[in-house]
Each structure stands twice: as structure tokens, then as C-alpha cells.
Amino acid sequence: MQKIIAANWKMYKSRQEARKTAVDLRGMLAAEDLPGKRVVIFPSFTNIPDVLDVFAATPCVAVGAQNFYPASEGAYTGEISLAMLGDMGVSQVLAGHSERRHLLGETDEFVARKTSFALNQGFSVMLCIGETLAEREAGDLVRILSRQTGSALADLPEDCLARLSVAYEPVWAIGTGKVAGPAEVLEAHAAVRSRVVRILGDAGRNVPILYGGSVKPDNAVTLLELDNVDGLLVGGASLNAESFMQIVRA
Ligand code: PGA
Question: At the topology level of CATH, where does 3-249 sit?
């Protein structure tokens, strides 16, 4: 399986900064041969056209959106539809990122609606899941991952599954500099894999599972070598082209 290295730029970068980072990254990617890697960049909405333009002739790079509303159109002030994203040339979205769950109130039920809506509209979805520190300390890791996975992946049509990926991002590791250790990542990814296979059957074996949470150039190699780690979702360290490129090379 190709490794997916995804960049989540969150609410960072002016248009000019986004274009510059993208141009720098394109230059570095062009200078190397990395056949086993696929890169996905999730800029803010307003920076998507510039980043798409920069990577228009770079087939190993896809550009996705960090968010969308699960309805075809309507009176949803401030929201963006998949049709609008599709119009720009985007066909990939994130769903269930911990910042949207914990800071912006998205529930399991809403994340499930978003996941199935986007998959049914032909988009690729990177579903993010992960436990808080309190949940982990209470011994609830497997239960939380099962609940988040189970609710989002129930009743998906079979022909969507090739467009699904899951990112395990422990909430306590996001933006904190505290990366999960190899044993913790192995345990969580094994639990996610077995849950995904239980829900989706054999097709679940091919669903990429990414790790996210304080991924840096110096821990990327170790993470990518672990069983069931099919890629990385990178926040802070993806904002700089050189540090993200070090992770892509890992
Ligand atoms: P981080 O963010 O790499 O800065 O921890 C990861 C994410 O939010 O996807």
C-alpha cells in the first residue's frame, strides 16, 4: 500500500504564504523520486485555488478541504457545500477532526452524517478519530475508538470504500508535542483495523489508517514502520515545506 502523507494547514497562512509553501514543496517533490508516497494537502478554503494551481501538474499531490456541510445546498450561513468544493476541483475532505469535535461541537452522529454524505457524493473522506487523555486514563481507549468508528462507518455502500481512509489522532497528542509511543500506536491501530474489518468485512483490510498527533521529522520513520500505520496526518510540522518534506521522505 502507498503511504499517504497528509498536511493539515488548519487556520494558518495568508494566500501568499500558502502559495509560497506549495511552490517550495513542489520544487522539492520534483527533485526526488518517491513512488511509495502520496501527498494530500488540506489548506484553508480561501487558499485552495492557489494550492490547486501550484500542484495542477503534480499527480502525486491531492488537495482537500478541511470541512464542509452535509447538505447539497440551503440556508446554512457560513457553511460550504461539496458542490462548491467540487467546482474548485476538490474531491477529498476531512471529517471528524478533533478540533471540530471538541472546539466546534461536532458529535459522532454529525460526523457520521458528514462521512456518509461525502462518500455518497463521490468524495474521498479521511475520517479522524481519537480519544482524550481522560478517556485513555479511564481505560476507555478501545471503547471510544469502536464507538467513533462504528457510528461513522455503519451502512456505507460497498463501492465507496476505496475512497475512505481513517486517521487515528489521540486528542492529547495533537499540537502538544506529545507523540504517542510505538506501543500505544500499535495497540490503537490494531484496534481500529479490527473494528473496521468487523464493520466493512474484507474491504476493511485495504482502508488506509493514518496516525496523527505531533508527527515531526524525527519520529516519522518510527511511526511509518509500525504495523497498520499506512500514513501520517501532520499539522504543525506541515506548515513549513522543508520539515514536511522530511516527513514525506521518511
Ligand atoms: P499536529 O496536528 O501535528 O500539530 O499535532 C495534527 C492534526 O491536527 O491533524
Answer: TIM Barrel (3.20.20)
